């Protein structure tokens, strides 16, 4: 039996169907609202608006639940790899042994970047941000590689090409920025090991692949692979709804992720730690300043817009953080500050009462720094991990017969009818024309 919500406006009653998701969440279907009443809803930031139906990721912020295709994130972080998780998100199920092997082989086969694309890297200003470069390079891929044509193919070559080459392009941008020779991918290394080797191997000091660090990177990317309808995923869906090529849609997602309120959060954690160290603040001073609402200082990496309890990804990333720090034994004052800050915040009643627990960005920033990833590459690392989710969401959107081009409405607050004034008659409050 269909459930309805009753809306009464101007004395007119309307029955709005209630849609129930597979986990029991409910949504009021307002698709006929404007047609029947002339009204629209007003929801800045779309925090209470469902823009699509999706079978990819389920999250419950109150209970701290995150699942990909129904599989708890805790199980994937413990048992899966990033490549296997990418397959799960895009195809909708875990791969067989043969499918996983074939996928890994094809990722290696697609890992090289077209030689003509190197000219783009060489002509970017040295100070150019890696995220800007990555967004432009992904968009440029449309000119070098064929566009997706067959959505029915489960793991299309276009998807594999994107996942493989984004890793290579990210490492290349780093190498060019520090003036080192580009290290090419090696067919004998797995996806994550190849990335670390391309980043840090050089002619003077060959890079030693450590499996604990490889595992940490796997977990980092698994935890970031998808997160429901966030800012960048929505950007991919909105741009994709215009039926643009997938490269342009993914480029839009990268650009959206670049913002400090989204993918730049893990970078903000390190910048906060740098400020604490530079200003010589004690941990007690940091906690006091964070509790003072009049003080502009904020503890980055604590709390989350969606999770009202401990971020489940944060718990997992903390374990990886402990493993990595024990392994690298890096003498770094920022890492020391981070660990002492975490301990103090977890014991402080103010943070506990407001559920301001360390989130995934806090621990991710520590892990990436310990791995040797430069701070301006942090958001790029996020983008590599989120790519399978973007692809899965784009693919789902393209296959949905109910989806239309995204076209939000607005509440107009400007002038009413306003006659044109000839230029010689225009005078404004400051006396200028």
From TrEMBL:
Gene3D superfamilies: 2.20.28.60, Citrate Synthase, domain 1, Cytochrome P450-Terp, domain 2
InterPro entries the record matches: Citrate_synth-like_lrg_a-sub, Citrate_synth-like_sm_a-sub, Citrate_synthase, Citrate_synthase_AS, Citrate_synthase_bac-typ, Citrate_synthase_sf, Citrate_synthase_typ-I
Claim: Transferase is one of the keywords in the record: yes
Pathway: Carbohydrate metabolism; tricarboxylic acid cycle; isocitrate from oxaloacetate: step 1/2
Keyword Acyltransferase: yes
One GO CC term, this protein: cytoplasm
Catalytic activity: oxaloacetate + acetyl-CoA + H2O = citrate + CoA + H(+)
Active site as annotated: 304, 361
Keywords from the UniProt entry: Acyltransferase, Transferase, Tricarboxylic acid cycle
Matches recorded under SUPFAM superfamilies: Citrate synthase (SSF48256)
GO terms classed as biological process: tricarboxylic acid cycle
GO MF term (any one): citrate synthase activity
Family membership noted in the UniProt record: Belongs to the citrate synthase family.
PANTHER family on file: CITRATE SYNTHASE (PTHR42871:SF1)
Protein name: Citrate synthase
Species, as recorded: Desulfotignum phosphitoxidans DSM 13687
């Amino acid at each position: 039996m269909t459930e309805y919500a009753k809306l009464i406006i101007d004395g007119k009653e309307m029955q709005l169907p209630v849609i129930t998701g597979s986990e029991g969440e409910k949504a009021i279907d307002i698709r006929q609202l404007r047609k029947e009443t002339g009204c629209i809803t007003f929801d800045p930031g779309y925090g209470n608006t469902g823009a699509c139906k999706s079978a990819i990721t389920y999250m419950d912020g109150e209970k701290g639940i995150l699942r990909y295709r129904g599989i708890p994130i805790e199980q994937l972080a413990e048992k899966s790899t990033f490549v296997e998780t990418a397959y799960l998100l895009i195809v909708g199920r875990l791969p067989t042994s043969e499918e996983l092997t074939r996928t890994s082989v094809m990722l290696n086969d697609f890992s090289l970047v077209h030689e003509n694309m190197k000219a783009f890297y060489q002509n970017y200003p040295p100070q150019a941000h890696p995220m800007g470069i990555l967004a432009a390079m992904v968009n440029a891929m449309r000119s070098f590689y064929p566009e997706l044509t067959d959505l029915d193919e489960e793991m299309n070559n276009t998807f594999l090409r994107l996942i493989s080459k984004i890793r290579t392009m990210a490492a290349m941008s780093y190498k060019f920025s520090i003036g080192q020779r580009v290290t090419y991918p090696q067919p004998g290394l797995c996806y994550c090991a190849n990335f670390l080797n391309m980043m840090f191997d050089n002619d003077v000091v060959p890079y030693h692949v450590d499996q604990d660090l490889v595992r940490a990177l796997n977990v980092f990317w698994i935890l970031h692979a998808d997160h429901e309808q966030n800012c960048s995923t929505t950007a991919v869906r909105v741009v994709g709804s215009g039926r643009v090529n997938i490269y342009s849609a993914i480029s839009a997602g990268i650009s959206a992720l670049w913002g400090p309120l989204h993918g730049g959060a893990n970078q903000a954690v390190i910048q906060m730690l740098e400020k604490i160290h530079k200003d010589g603040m004690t941990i007690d001073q940091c906690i006091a300043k964070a509790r003072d609402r009049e003080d502009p200082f904020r503890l980055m990496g604590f709390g989350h817009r969606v999770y009202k309890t401990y971020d489940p990804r944060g718990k997992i990333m903390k374990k990886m953080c402990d493993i990595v720090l024990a392994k690298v034994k890096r003498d770094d004052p920022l890492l020391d500050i981070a660990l002492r800050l975490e301990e103090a915040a977890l014991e402080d009643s103010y943070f506990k009462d407001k559920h301001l627990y360390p989130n995934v960005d806090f621990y991710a920033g520590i892990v990436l720094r310990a791995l040797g990833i430069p701070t301006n590459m942090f958001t790029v690392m996020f983008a590599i991990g989120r790519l399978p989710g973007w692809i899965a969401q784009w693919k789902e959107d393209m296959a949905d017969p109910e989806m239309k081009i995204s076209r939000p409405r607005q509440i107009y607050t400007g002038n009413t009818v306003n006659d044109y004034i000839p230029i010689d008659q225009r005078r404004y409050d400051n006396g200028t024309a």
